[in-house]
Amino acid sequence: MEGRAKTIESRKNRKIKISVIPGHFATNHSHINNYIDMTKIKTSHMMAKDAASQIAATYSSTPIDTIICMEGTEMLGAFLAESLASGGINQGEDVAVITPELNSNGQLIFRDNIQKMIWGKRVLLLISSVSTGKTINKALECLNYYSGELVAIASIFSAITESNGIAVHSVFTPDDIPGYQTFVQRECPMCQAGQKVDAIVNSFGYSKI
């Protein structure tokens, strides 16, 4: 499977790269025909810093108090906070970077000591990959409960450009991955054709079947 991997560079900065493996993959919400490996952006401080700078340029005029990091984007979120605070409308501001906890019912929660960073705050939601938007909806439900205001959504890759009336800005889009498609499981043409699922994938990586 790894032998099919291709490296894709960001159109704005060739130092920012992802690896794409074509095939048949199953996520919690859908089936996809390309697995996007973002490990380097999540773990390499140099690449994360470059990606954060690219994302921050989009929000130079958007007031942001807090960044909520989903799907292992904490390093990227820290550099994004630094980039936001170095110029534009957020210059000199202290931008909080937090991560939600998942309770036994599968709900996103924040403990009492973290809630003050959300209550009445302007929040940027940072996600590694957006395919259907269900993760965004789950995060928005959590934000509404804690009285936070979602003002921005950013991701490393997104198959959609908008969610809940808010633009989704990403480093990579389907235009960077020719032929990228996502399907609900019951409508997956690869399943209907009897094509074996190569791997189960989530924000942590993949497990071959």
Keywords:
single chain; 209 residues; alpha/beta; six-stranded mixed β-sheet; 33% strand; globular
Strand percentage lies at 25-35%
Mind summarizing the main beta sheet?
Answer: 6 strands, mixed
By helix and strand content, what is the structural category?
Answer: alpha/beta
Helix share bin: 10-25%
Radius of gyration: 17 Å
Q: Low-confidence stretches at least 5 residues in length (pLDDT < 50)? A: none
Discrete helix count:
6
What can be said about this structure in brief?
The chain is of the alpha/beta class. It contains 6 helices and 14 strands.
Structure, explained:
This protein is an alpha/beta fold. 24% of the residues lie in helices and 33% in strands. It contains six helices and 14 strands. It has helices at 39-43, 45-58, 74-85, 112-115, 134-145, 189-192; strands spanning 6-9, 17-26, 31-37, 66-69, 96-98, 101-102, 108-109, 122-130, 149-158, 162-163, 166-172, 182-183, 199-202, 205-208. Strands 1, 2, 3, 12, 13 and 14 form a six-stranded mixed β-sheet that branches. It is globular. The model has no long low-confidence stretch (mean pLDDT 94).
